[in-house]
């Protein structure tokens, strides 16, 4: 059949359902020909008003074209092409299994929220496939299928496919718009989706203009010419209802997401771990540790706090400078109380006032995104880039990304509970060594100047336990003590980035809490360190020796200070009074180790100097063998040293004497050891081997 023939026959395919639309013979008899014509025109106009056209898209072609025709195959191809785009977009947009599967921004500005709302409403207006599909279902019972290749099954196939396509396209549009972090992104995403959701219309228009084949063009023209009798007066009401319902569902989803954004539900993580460097301000590193997200929002972003007693430090966003800042102020304690209200003009929530650390300029809602952080150099009152800064999520409830390995612990209320034998913030370490000692191959800690009196610190330290027998932790590291006298303990503890050696005489806050007649006990010291001590607040707090830095993730990152270099701390001359704005840059040696200061205790007048002292774990065992081939008594953790060897691990061989027989060998004075051992013997004193006269 030719195109012209089809066009001529098209009007005859209309089905007239209403007999009243046909002019009666009585009308012709009573009113003549003119009356008959007027009546016919009037009823035909009424018929045209009560008919509708099929939508001009390939979904209508699915209904009208015969199954085995090229037009039907073309319609299926276009539909599959459109659905392929939709499937690829959906796979790329959704992160299945994630806590935020739609990848919604953690927060957006108010203008973005407004544009998102308008774009979602506009999407329903221009994306009418779903509503047309519902309308098509409602029209089916009013149409005679005795035309072309139509059937009830194909009618439902066309309508349901169109409905599903409309729903999927609206869902993808919704996700894309809600993923937009700026106005431009929202508009661009909306424009991109308009291309995909009009593929069915474009495919039909292309075929209708004859760009495919003549047969498919004729089939498209039949869709255009085909008239449907109106289903009922409720048809328009149904369209309006579906439009309103679709808008309501989209706006409900929009409202839920906006509420989640405004209340910080997407502002993960709930906890962060921060380690500050100690350049320009050596006490800043004392505020390292875990910061917890509060229920309060500042500048539309999460605020993180760390508290010890009544001492609060906070990391929040400064809207004026567009930076994340760290401030320390006891007034921020109220942030921990969920019952308190948040007022925008409340002076207590100003992260722009008195900051000591800040990030690079950013609009980010995620505190982890800034890459550069700065510390305030109080001498010059200018920000200086940190020598070291570490910030990362400390949530143990992040699925496969969890820091809390199932082999080492379990995540309980977002806190890693360690299995027996594990230790650390995320159970990343084995249990700490029970005792530390100076490696005798090096030297003991040198004398110190404390209150103009020469003194020494201990060479041996034991793990401090609380009254429940658990190791005492400070900054997520164990504390070691040495009972120097009944009224003094030497204390070895971590302060956020470095280990320090002090004593209870230098912990003036601790001594102030005790009566002068009260004996200092391990239990009292443990209680103070667990519940009150803070290396940044508990001043005056004397540091006699300071270790090299122990940065998170570096090779030196460990549970104990074994193997670290040590430096003798000092205070700058004439800096005995409380540190203030006149505080000048700390002095660094070649290893860039910061000087450490006390408010009222003169440590040493010289610069921080490297000392030839190294600590070792002094308890032998499976993972800490005795040195120089000595045996470990596992039950006691003590090495059985042979004569001539000293140290907790038998690490040091005493110098041989020039006249000693060295078990048959010869003493080499320049090396302080025996040499030229008899055949089969070896060791510092030729004490090992088949011919040795010393029992192993």
Automatic annotation (TrEMBL):
Keyword set includes Iron-sulfur: no
Question: What InterPro entries would the database entry show?
Answer: EGF, Notch_signaling
| Entries under SMART domains matching the protein | EGF (SM00181)
Any one GO MF term held by the record is: Notch binding
Q: Which CDD domains match?
A: EGF_CA
Region named Disordered: 1-30
Report TM segments: 71-96, 108-126, 155-177, 241-259
Q: Which UniProt keywords apply?
A: Disulfide bond, EGF-like domain, Membrane, Transmembrane, Transmembrane helix
Taken from the UniProt record, the cysteine pairs bridged by disulfide bonds within this chain are 641-650
Location of the EGF-like domain? 618-651
Protein name, UniProt field:
EGF-like domain-containing protein
Which source organism does the UniProt entry give? Odontella aurita
């Amino acid at each position: 059949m030719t195109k012209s023939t089809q066009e001529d026959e098209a009007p005859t395919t209309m089905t007239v359902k209403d007999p009243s639309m046909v002019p009666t013979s009585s009308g012709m008899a009573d009113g003549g020909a003119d009356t008959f014509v007027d009546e016919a025109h009037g009823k035909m106009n009424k018929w045209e008003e009560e008919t509708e056209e099929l939508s001009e898209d390939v979904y209508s072609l699915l209904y009208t074209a015969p199954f085995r025709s090229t037009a039907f195959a073309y319609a299926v191809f276009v539909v599959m092409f459109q659905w392929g785009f939709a499937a690829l977009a959906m796979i790329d947009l959704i992160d299945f299994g994630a806590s935020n599967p739609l990848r919604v921004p953690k927060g957006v500005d108010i203008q973005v929220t407004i544009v998102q709302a308008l774009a979602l409403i506009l999407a329903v207006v221009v994306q009418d496939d779903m509503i047309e599909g519902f309308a098509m279902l409602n029209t089916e019972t009013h149409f005679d299928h005795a035309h072309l290749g139509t059937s009830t099954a194909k009618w439902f196939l066309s309508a349901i496919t169109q409905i599903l396509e409309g729903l999927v396209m609206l869902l993808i549009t919704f996700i894309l718009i809600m993923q937009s972090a700026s106005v431009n992104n929202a508009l661009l995403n909306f424009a991109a989706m308009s291309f995909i959701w009009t593929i069915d219309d474009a495919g039909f228009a292309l075929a209708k203009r004859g760009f495919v084949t003549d047969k498919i063009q004729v089939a498209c023209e039949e869709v255009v010419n085909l008239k449907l009798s109106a289903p009922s007066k409720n048809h328009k009401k149904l369209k309006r209802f579906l439009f309103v319902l679709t808008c309501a569902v989209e706006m409900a989803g929009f409202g839920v997401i906006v509420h989640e954004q405004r209340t910080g539900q997407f502002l993960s993580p709930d906890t962060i771990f921060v380690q500050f460097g100690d350049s320009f301000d050596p006490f800043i590193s004392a505020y390292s540790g875990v910061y917890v997200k509060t229920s309060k929002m500042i500048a539309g972003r999460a605020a993180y706090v760390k508290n010890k007693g009544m001492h609060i430090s906070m990391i929040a966003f400064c809207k004026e400078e567009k930076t994340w800042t760290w401030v320390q102020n006891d007034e921020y304690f109220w942030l921990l109380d969920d019952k308190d209200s948040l007022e925008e003009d409340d002076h207590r929530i100003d992260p722009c006032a008195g900051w000591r650390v800040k990030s690079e300029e950013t609009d980010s809602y995620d505190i982890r995104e800034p890459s550069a952080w700065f510390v305030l150099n109080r001498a010059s009152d200018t920000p200086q880039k940190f020598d070291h800064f570490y910030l990362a999520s400390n949530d143990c409830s992040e699925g496969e990304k969890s820091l809390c390995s199932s082999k080492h612990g379990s995540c309980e209320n977002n806190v890693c509970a360690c299995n027996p034998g594990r230790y650390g913030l995320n159970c990343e370490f084995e249990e700490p060594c029970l005792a530390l000692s100076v490696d005798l191959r090096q030297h003991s800690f040198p004398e110190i100047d404390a209150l103009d009196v020469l003194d020494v610190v201990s060479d041996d330290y034991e793990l401090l336990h609380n009254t429940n027998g658990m190791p005492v932790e400070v900054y997520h590291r164990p504390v070691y003590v040495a009972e120097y006298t009944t009224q003094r303990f030497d204390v070895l503890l971590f302060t956020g980035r470095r280990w320090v050696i002090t004593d209870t005489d230098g912990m003036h806050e601790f001594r102030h809490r005790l009566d002068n007649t009260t004996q200092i006990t391990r239990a009292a010291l443990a209680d103070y360190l667990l519940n009150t001590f803070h290396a940044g607040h508990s001043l005056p707090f004397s540091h006699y020796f300071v270790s090299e830095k122990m940065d998170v993730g570096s090779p030196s990152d460990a549970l104990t200070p074994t193997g670290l270099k040590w430096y003798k701390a000092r205070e700058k001359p004439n800096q005995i009074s409380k540190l203030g704005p006149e505080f000048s840059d700390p002095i660094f040696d070649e290893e860039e180790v910061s000087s450490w200061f006390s408010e009222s205790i003169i440590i040493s007048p010289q610069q921080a100097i490297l000392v030839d002292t190294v600590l070792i774990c002094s308890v032998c065992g499976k993972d800490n063998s005795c040195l120089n081939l000595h045996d470990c008594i596992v039950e006691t953790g003590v090495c059985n040293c042979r004569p001539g060897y000293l140290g907790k691990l038998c690490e040091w061989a005493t110098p041989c004497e020039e006249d000693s027989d060295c078990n048959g060998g010869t003493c080499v004075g320049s090396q302080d050891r025996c040499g030229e051992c008899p055949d089969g013997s070896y060791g510092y004193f030729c004490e090992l081997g088949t011919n040795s006269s010393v029992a192993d």
